[in-house]
Specification:
This protein is α/β, with parallel strands linked by helices. The protein is built from seven helices and eight strands, in the order H-H-H-E-E-H-E-E-H-E-H-H-E-E-E. It has a single domain, classed as Rossmann fold, CATH 3.40.50.150. Helix 5 links the parallel strand 4 and strand 5.
Length: 220
């Protein structure tokens, strides 16, 4: 379903970031807090490259060919495919970014499992979500129920649910940032991200892949 929806409305999706620029730029600022300055990165669900480009991520994968055409114009090396079956070898990447996409994939657990596989030991998995318990999360949930063309396909998660999913697949040493503290109609500037979660609507969750050679999973 995701491929059909996003192939039908690629320009509408991309234009959303212009129409809601302070939301978008606030999210970028939160993500910049955790994106490594060095290393090879991958964005799963790269879409039109709206996040990969400003965050200097060179490689992206998405199931929508029409979205990837736009991403290519932003200098992204694109792969057509699903996060559940990544066309990359084991331990290829230093970090992986997944922004909002986790809400649209068919099997989020398999996406996390595949992310673990292609990440190097001690690599970082960076997930950005709209927390379902936040103001914006509740608004999007209502839009889903009303049959919104994009949100009707989404399954929203809480920060705690994502943490448990990451713990299950060998991720720990978590870091959190949050932003979008006000209703969208009142957002007239870029908001400064804060550490933690529970206040903002957009949450950045970073989990580090445990070094498989040490075998210490006691913290999980």
């Amino acid at each position: 379903m995701r491929e059909n929806i996003f192939d039908i409305y690629p320009k509408e999706y991309d234009n959303w970031y212009e129409e809601n620029k302070f939301v978008y730029l606030s999210e970028i600022e939160a993500l910049k807090k955790v994106i490594p300055e060095k290393g090879e990165g991958l964005e799963i669900g790269v879409g039109t490259g709206r996040f990969a480009q400003p965050l200097r991520i060179k490689t992206g994968i998405d199931p929508s060919s029409k979205m990837l055409k736009i991403a290519k114009t932003r200098g992204i090396k694109t792969y057509l495919g699903m996060g559940e079956n990544l066309p990359f070898g084991d331990k290829e990447f230093d970090f992986i970014l997944i922004v909002i996409t986790i809400c649209f994939v068919q099997n989020p657990e398999q996406v996390i499992r595949e992310s673990n596989r292609v990440l190097k030991d001690n690599g970082k998995l960076i997930i950005g979500i709209i927390d379902k318990n936040s103001y914006l999360g509740k608004l999007y949930q209502r839009k889903k129920e009303e049959g919104h063309r994009f949100y009707k396909e989404a399954n929203f998660y809480s920060t705690e649910e994502i943490i448990e999913l990451l713990k299950k697949h060998n991720f720990g040493k978590f870091t959190f940032y949050q932003t979008i503290f006000h209703p969208l109609e009142k957002l007239n500037k870029i908001e400064k991200p804060e550490k933690g979660y529970g206040k903002g609507s957009f949450i950045v969750i970073v989990g580090e892949k445990e070094d498989e050679t040490n075998g210490d999973k006691s913290s999980f």
